[in-house]
Specification:
The protein is mainly α and 366 residues long. The chain folds into three domains: 46-237, Lysozyme (Orthogonal Bundle); 244-315, no CATH class; 322-361, Roll (Membrane-bound Lytic Murein Transglycosylase D, Chain A), CATH 3.10.350.10. The protein contains 14 helices and eight strands. It has helices spanning 2-19, 58-73, 75-98, 106-113, 133-138, 153-171, 174-183, 185-195, 207-224, 257-263, 268-274, 300-315, 328-335, 339-346; strands at 47-48, 51-52, 244-251, 255-256, 282-283, 286-293, 319-321, 359-361. Strands 1-2 form a two-stranded antiparallel sheet. It has a two-stranded antiparallel sheet with strand order 3-6. It has a two-stranded antiparallel sheet with strand order 4-5. The longest helix has 24 residues, at 75-98. Residues 7-33 have low confidence and may be disordered.
């Protein structure tokens, strides 16, 4: 076991050495790749939202260099950061500019979720900006069985900017506002009162929060100058922003998402991918503003009206009245449909009983 452990350690060290010595000159054929230490030699001050990271403090410098090395070690993750940021940062950056807030705040979303809408944490935080349900609702996000706007880039960014601006008003520091975003407003207030300092870099905070600003600063440094760290991209390598347009429509009752997809001349999957806040297969009654492929927006409403009328007229044809002795398995076998489909069509819980006289939607296979 000891021998195997030693071999594994040697393998990891060799892999690390190979991975982090990509040419920084911009020339993939460079015969003299830089030593890793070159990546840690900072020529200019490191800042976050215009506030300087005090690298003259040896403790801060060591912790910052650790975050740089950890990020550069995980080069596949950095590649995905850069590729996704080309897709999502334009919208976040515009919203920050419109709100007169620092552009550096966009890196919070990168660190929180790697710019993935379905990212989740063990604490129940979800989405691009990692809101818990209670905090998301506090800042105006809809979070229910039908929609979870924590997964919407536009809605969650709006909420995050509201939150961060509020925190900045409390601390008059974007560094403290961002740190409070990580650990909570009341927690940050308490630590400032208890330790009698409002300097983030002098506060003893939870270890995750002590790392937080330094992780963001490291990500900013790498992504702002990827070639320096050996990440060489063409525009074709990057993920492009979605070509889509926002449309608004009303759902008069519980409506299958597939009807919206058909009205948009696209697939169920495309609608779900463009609108990750939509949960499940149905939209509840209400007004919706969603993204559809750009080429589908012009005639969307006329197609939607026609498909909606057709679906509502046909819906009664697919209603089945539960009889005495029925259960869901018997009904599924009778109509030759998968049992899970009955749960989906009728919004049933797995242990929810049915009773004689209940009406179930059943779409027989064609």
């Amino acid at each position: 076991m000891k021998s195997n452990t030693s071999l594994f350690f040697i393998f990891i060290c060799l892999a690390f050495s190979f991975t982090i010595t990509s040419p920084a000159s911009g020339n993939p054929e460079s015969p003299d790749p830089p030593f890793l230490i070159n990546y840690l030699r900072m020529e200019d001050p490191i800042t976050f939202c215009g506030e300087t990271v005090p690298l003259d403090n040896q403790d801060i410098r060591e912790r910052f260099e650790k975050e740089m090395l950890l990020s550069l070690w995980n080069r596949p993750q950095v590649i995905l950061w850069i590729k996704r940021s080309n897709r999502h940062f334009p919208l976040i950056g515009k919203m920050l500019k419109d709100a007169d807030m620092p552009d550096d705040l966009k890196y919070i979303a990168l660190i929180e979720s790697a710019l993935l809408p379905h990212a989740g944490s063990s604490k129940g935080a979800i989405g691009y900006w990692q809101f818990t349900a209670s905090t998301g609702k506090k800042y105006g996000l809809t979070i229910d069985e039908g929609l979870d706007e924590r997964r919407s880039l536009h809605a969650s960014t709006r909420a995050a900017l509201h939150c961060l601006k509020e925190y900045h008003g409390v601390f008059n520091s974007w560094t403290l506002a961002a740190a409070a975003y990580n650990m909570g407003l009341q927690g940050m207030k308490t630590e400032i009162l208890a330790q009698k300092t409002n300097d983030y870099y002098s506060l003893y905070l939870p270890l995750e929060t002590q790392r937080y600003i330094l992780r963001i600063a490291a990500a900013k440094l790498i992504i702002s100058n990827p070639e320096k760290y050996g990440f060489l991209f063409t525009n074709e390598d990057l993920y492009q922003p979605y070509t889509c347009e926002r449309i608004t429509f009303k759902s008069p009752e519980r409506l299958p998402v597939r009807i919206v997809a058909e009205a948009a001349n696209t697939s169920f999957k495309v609608i779900k991918d463009l609108n990750p806040e939509i949960r499940g297969y149905y939209l509840n009654e209400g007004t919706y503003s969603i993204f559809v492929p750009a080429e589908a927006s012009e005639q969307f409403h006329s197609r939607y009206t026609r498909l909606l009328e057709q679906w509502m007229s046909e819906e009664t044809e697919y209603l089945y009245t539960v009889k005495k002795g029925d259960n869901l398995s018997i009904i599924a076998d009778r109509f030759n449909v998968p049992l899970p489909a009955l749960f989906l069509w009728n919004d049933l819980e797995i242990d929810e009983p049915i009773h004689p006289g209940d009406r179930l939607l059943i779409y027989p296979q064609k």
